[in-house]
């Protein structure tokens, strides 16, 4: 935790790529000082089809999912660092939105599952 889910459009076929945007978000998340690098997860994807009416040629929406317990100031600092990181990308026209979702242990579950070893002898 936290999870950063980046949806982006690339209507203008600019140089906006999943790797570029995910790297910018990851760097900002690391530099904000709220999380250890090992805990940060960033996923970025470009939907096959989008419709939006905007003067901007490209759109980036970032959903940040994290456990509650951070102050409004910490959240604002993280958001501003993400904005700065995305704004520094070589994109000429971009609409950016960020949604912060606070999770609790009641609405989030994680378990690392390991594949069980199955003996070939059991299947003979």
Any overview of this molecule?
The chain has 124 residues and is an alpha/beta fold. 24% of the residues lie in helices and 25% in strands. It contains 2 helices and 4 strands; from the N terminus they run βαββαβ. The chain has helices at 18-31, 72-87, and strands at residues 3-8, 41-45, 58-67, 94-103. The chain has a 4-stranded mixed sheet, with helices on one face. Strand 1, helix 1 and strand 2 form a beta-alpha-beta unit. Helix 1 runs antiparallel to helix 2 (72-87). The radius of gyration is 18 Å and the shape is globular. The mean pLDDT is 86.
Which key terms come to mind for this protein?
alpha/beta; globular; 124 residues
> What Rg, in angstroms, do the CA atoms define?
18 Å
How is the biggest beta sheet arranged?
4 strands, mixed
Number of helices: 2
Give the helix level as a range of percent.
10-25%
Question: Based on CA inertia axes, which overall geometry fits?
Answer: globular
Strand order of the largest sheet: 2-1-3-4
Order of helices and strands: EHEEHE
> Tally of extended strands?
4
Mean pLDDT: 86
How much of the polypeptide forms β-strand, as a percent range? 25-35%
The structural class is alpha/beta
Low-confidence stretches: none
End-to-end separation in angstroms reads 43 Å
């Amino acid at each position: 935790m936290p999870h950063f889910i980046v949806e982006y459009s690339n209507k203008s076929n600019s140089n906006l790529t999943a790797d570029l945007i995910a790297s910018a978000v990851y760097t900002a998340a690391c530099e904000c000082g709220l999380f250890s690098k090992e805990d940060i997860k960033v996923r970025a994807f470009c939907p096959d089809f989008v419709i939006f009416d905007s003067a901007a040629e490209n759109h980036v929406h970032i959903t940040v999912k994290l456990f509650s317990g951070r102050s409004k100031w910490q959240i604002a600092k993280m958001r501003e660092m993400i904005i700065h990181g995305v704004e520094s990308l070589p994109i000429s026209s971009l609409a950016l939105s960020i949604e912060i979702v606070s999770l609790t242990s009641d609405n989030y579950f994680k378990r690392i599952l390991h594949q069980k070893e199955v003996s070939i002898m059991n299947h003979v």
